[in-house]
Design goal:
CATH class of the largest domain in chain A: Mainly Alpha
CATH topology of the largest domain in chain B: MetI-like fold
Largest sheet of chain B: 2 strands, antiparallel
Largest sheet of chain A: none
Number of domains of chain A: 2
Oligomer: heterodimer
Structural class of chain A: mainly alpha
Largest interface: A-B, 104 and 109 residues
Structural class of chain B: mainly alpha
Radius of gyration of chain B: 27 Å
CATH superfamily of the largest domain in chain A: MetI-like
Radius of gyration of chain A: 24 Å
Shape of chain B: globular
Distance between the termini of chain A: 25 Å
Number of domains of chain B: 2
CATH architecture of the largest domain in chain B: Orthogonal Bundle
CATH class of the largest domain in chain B: Mainly Alpha
């Protein structure tokens, strides 16, 4: 343990204060971050009358799953969840194929003007998403030259996800750390670039590929405005958009129940992969 | 003299001069761009081309399928609209307040967590948990349960039990923006906390030791060691946060049904959405986008000068 703001010896001297502060912080943080989630899950188990009651009840008087089943049926959540899974899975595949290939080319094959291409990609990180939303939508409703509309097609989500400079940067930096000698050895043995990528680079890059995949899933799951625009048909909606479009016409408790169900997949992913997610997040932003 | 002949065949493909060298270079470029083509196509379609198109569109007008150049007309129309100024006022207020709250709070949370020798993993998971919720889910929780203006709402019940005055939350124009900042900070602060934590762990312990030997107290150590050592990451995150909060959109859309009570929630991003997708005014929306980009560019330029001047 390295030395931090307060030295270990000082902490040992004021042991009572340390443990009190720790207990207070753990309690407050649990209340602040788990409290609302508890309220959400149990609130949806209450009847409409019980929710409107003052003061509010801490435990549901007689817990009832009817809000959850109503949400499942009225919003057609099974279909919405399937759509979102489908878009997320496709986004992972597209990003892994095209972003990995691009990062590999920029890091190892280094074609002429590779740095210009990388620069032009990184420059898009400076453009706020809202600024591009209208022309991007215009592109989707009529692709230039071929004049095809991607509206309600999963490609409207998958292809823009490939244009992710942050992921390419993350992957390229990882590939940069793989020794050049390995590449040379493979080329001398007559391996093609594709073969080198497949049997040397990718097996070594499993951790970073995992991080990129998790990021892709959560990005699709959390996205709101883009799927709202490009998936207008009720049959193609994502779960967040579905809840939003139904929210006006159904009881509040049913909306909350649907929100709980919509949040479950990402929360479960996070609890399983929290170590990878957190290390990916900090390594991506810090050691640039 | 010893000849270097044995080495030659191995290097032939890579380093031999003349014809073969040029050929291998061409081959390398070809395979390089073959690997890049997919990503380049997606960037071109969904990033580079829309950037140019948005700029061009802001000087055009499309009526009944006919597109004409109209100069600054779209900009003039947008600037004449009173909601433009309200939207900027709201957006700046939100960005400023979110910066004060969402920038200072995560820093002190990270400072605190870094001192603990126990339960660190648990606290880190807690702080990051809301980041994983879909924003729509989290915002309905705030809208229906936390910001319920009656005394059955979570926040009002807590305030009442502490004998504090209750609030109308989203229904009171004065509370709209602070309530959105609160929800947004809760949802998003986890990322900043983790990044601060990682940068705090990179501070060499000797610096604190030396400061302590010089008699520096806790606050002095924070001021003279912690902050200078993390200055770069602090500056970077502040910038990233400003860019993110200026695009305020989902919070007003869900919490305030868009504009909010007496236009108290209208944001610039919401105006872009309105013009582009409800008022059939894509050109006006494009002009708004260019204005937003301009404001951010001026802001980042100013900011960059400020931070680099401090450096030297």
């Amino acid at each position: 343990m390295t030395r931090t703001l307060i030295s270990s010896t000082q902490l040992k001297r004021s042991r009572v204060r340390y443990w009190t502060l720790l207990a207070v912080v753990v309690t407050v943080f649990t209340l602040v971050f788990i409290g609302p989630l508890y309220w959400m899950v149990t609130g949806a188990l209450k009847s409409a009358q019980e929710v409107a009651q003052t003061p509010p009840t801490l435990f549901p008087r007689d817990p009832d799953l009817s809000n959850y089943t109503a949400a499942w049926e009225q919003l057609n959540l099974a279909k919405l969840l399937f759509n979102t899974f489908y878009y997320a899975a496709g986004a992972v595949v597209f990003q892994l194929i095209f972003d990995t290939a691009a990062a590999y080319a920029l890091s190892k094959l280094r074609p002429a003007f590779g740095n210009v291409v990388l620069g032009a990609m990184l420059a898009t990180l400076m453009i706020p998403a809202m600024v591009l939303i209208v022309p991007q939508y215009q592109t989707v409703i009529s692709l230039p030259v071929i004049d095809v509309s991607l509206l309600d097609s999963p490609f409207a989500i998958w292809l823009p996800m490939v244009a992710n400079a942050f992921n390419i940067f993350l992957l390229k930096r990882f590939f940069d750390s793989i020794p050049e000698e390995l590449m040379q050895a493979a080329f001398v043995d007559g391996a093609s670039p594709l073969r080198t990528l497949w049997s040397i680079i990718l097996p070594m890059s499993r951790p970073i590929l995992g991080v990129v995949s998790i990021f892709a899933v959560t990005a699709v799951w959390k996205d709101f405005l883009w799927p709202l625009l490009v998936m207008p048909h009720p049959e193609t909606r994502t779960v967040s958009v579905g809840i939003y479009t139904f929210a006006g016409g159904i009881p509040q408790n049913v909306v909350i129940a649907a929100s709980v169900i919509a949040a479950l997949p990402t929360v479960i992913i996070f609890l399983i992969f929290q170590r990878n997610i957190m290390s990916g997040l900090t390594s991506g932003s810090l050691k640039g | 003299m010893v000849t270097i002949a044995p080495a030659a065949p191995v290097q032939a493909g890579a380093a031999a001069p003349g014809n073969t060298g040029r050929q291998s270079r061409i081959k390398r470029n070809l395979s390089g761009y073959a690997f890049l083509i997919g990503a380049i196509a997606c960037f071109a379609l969904f990033m580079w081309y829309p950037m140019i198109r948005g700029f061009v569109m802001s000087f055009q007008r499309t009526r009944r399928g006919e597109t004409t150049w109209v100069g600054w007309d779209n900009y003039i129309r947008i600037l004449d609209d009173p909601s433009f100024w309200i939207a900027w006022k709201n957006t700046f207020y939100f960005t400023g307040l979110a910066l004060v709250v969402g920038f200072v709070v995560p820093f002190f949370v990270a400072l605190l967590l870094n001192e603990f020798r126990h339960a660190k993993g648990y606290l880190r998971v807690l702080v990051y948990l809301p980041v994983m919720l879909p924003p729509a889910s989290a915002l309905y929780l705030f809208k229906y349960y936390a910001y319920d203006p009656s005394e059955a709402g979570l926040f009002n019940a807590v305030l009442k039990s502490l004998n504090l005055p209750t609030s109308e939350w989203m229904q009171s124009p004065a509370m709209t923006i602070p309530a959105m900042v609160l929800a947004s900070t809760w949802m998003n602060m986890g990322g900043a906390v983790l990044i601060y934590l990682a940068s705090l762990q990179n501070i060499p312990g000797e610096l604190y030791e030396a400061a302590e030997l010089d008699g520096a107290g806790l606050w002095k150590r924070i001021w003279h060691v912690t902050i200078p050592q993390t200055r770069l990451i602090l500056a970077l995150l502040a910038m990233m946060q400003i860019v993110a909060t200026m695009q305020l959109f989902v919070e007003p859309l869900i919490l305030a049904n868009g504009a909010g009570t007496q236009d108290s929630a209208t944001s610039v991003a919401y105006l872009i959405y309105q013009h582009g997708f409800f008022q059939n005014d894509l050109n006006g929306a494009a002009a708004l986008g260019v204005i937003m980009l301009g404001v951010l560019a001026v802001f980042s330029g100013f900011y960059l000068r400020l931070t680099t001047r401090n450096e030297s």
